[in-house]
Amino acid sequence: MKPTPEHNQRIETMTFASVYPHYVTKVVKKGRTEDELLQVIEWLTGFDKTKTQTLIDQKVTFKTFFEKATINPNAHLIKGVICGYRIEDIDNTLTKQVRYLDKLVDELAKGRSMEKILRTE
């Protein structure tokens, strides 16, 4: 399945603050911690806990969130299907970055080891 322009637009205008609590709920319900979630976010974006909280407080959109991020050079190693979309086939950069984050959160919730989630090659 390929994301439509409307789908990409919806992701662009969605706020990170509106999705973050869902990430927390998902991982905590499966026995992981918010600190582990923050570690995953930091690995992908370069944002530490304080910066992540600032962006949540500012209610930035995903577009702004990822414009400010320094994407990990190994992010391209994140592959697979998330939310019905094969990450490798997504053309829109922002949509791909959001799906990277979704995939990492999913792996964390499924109990994958941090060593494997935080890809090194």
Overview features:
single chain; 121 residues; Helicase, Ruva Protein, domain 3; two-stranded antiparallel sheet; 2 strands; DUF2200 domain-containing protein; SP1917_dom_sf
Write the layout of secondary structure elements.
Blueprint: H1 5-13, H2 16-29, H3 34-45, H4 49-57, H5 62-68, E1 81-82, E2 85-86, H6 93-109, H7 114-117
Antiparallel strand pairs: 1-2
Helix pairs in contact: 2-6, 3-6
Structural notes for this entry:
The chain has seven helices and two strands, in the order H-H-H-H-H-E-E-H-H. It has helices spanning 5-13, 16-29, 34-45, 49-57, 62-68, 93-109, 114-117; strands at residues 81-82, 85-86. Strand 1 and strand 2 (85-86) form a beta hairpin. The model has no long low-confidence stretch (mean pLDDT 95).
Question: In brief, what are we looking at here?
Answer:
This protein is mainly alpha-helical. It is built from 7 helices and 2 strands.
Count of spatially separate domains: 1
In the CATH hierarchy, what is the class?
A: Mainly Alpha
Question: Could you say what the CATH architecture is?
Answer: Orthogonal Bundle
Termini separation comes to 27 Å
Q: Roughly what percent helix? A: 55-70%
Structural class: mainly alpha
Number of alpha- plus pi-helical segments: 7
Anisotropy-based shape: globular
Radius of gyration over all CA atoms, rounded: 13 Å
Characterize the quaternary organization of these chains: single chain
CATH topology: Helicase, Ruva Protein, domain 3
- Main-sheet strand order equals 1-2
> Segments where pLDDT lies below 50 for 5+ residues?
none
InterPro entries: SP1917_dom_sf, UCP033199
Protein name: DUF2200 domain-containing protein
